[in-house]
Amino acid sequence: MRKKGNYIILWPAYFDKKLSRSQGRRVPLKLSVENPSLTEIDKAARKLGFKTIIEPDKRYPKDWWNYRGRILIETEKERLRKTLILKKIGKILKELKIQ
With respect to CATH, is domain 7-98 assigned 3.20.20.140? Predict the structure, then answer.
């Protein structure tokens, strides 16, 4: 079911250090972590003040055989740049993994 409103989709593959850019990683290696979970990404997004929806039954198209889920981030009418949001979440994920 398609959600109404402005959402940005986040897949765990975007932040996975083990994946290459062609396999789906979207953040630089210095901002990526090994095997990020949906709860960690959700925690980082909420720390930045975003409203999130977790969908654990979804599959990343490049990794269609694996159910890793996805997170929808609700944005306001003025769309924020996705790359900027990804980098901010990656930075917080890195801090969470270190703790």
Answer: no
pLDDT of residue 42 exceeding 90? yes
The H or E element that residue 40 is part of is: helix 38-47
Side chain identity, residue 47: K
Pairing of strands 51-55, 7-10: unpaired
Long-range contacts of 76-84 (CB under 8 A, 24+ apart): 76/6, 77/6, 79/6, 80/8, 82/8, 83/26
| Cβ atoms of 42 and 32 closer than 8 Å | no
Q: In sequence order, what E strands does 1-99 have?
A: 7-10, 51-55, 70-74
| β-strands 51-55, 70-74 pairing | antiparallel
Domain parsing of the chain, residue ranges:
7-98
pLDDT for 59 equals 85
Specify burial of residue 58 (Cβ count, 10 A radius: 0-12, 13-18, 19+). middle
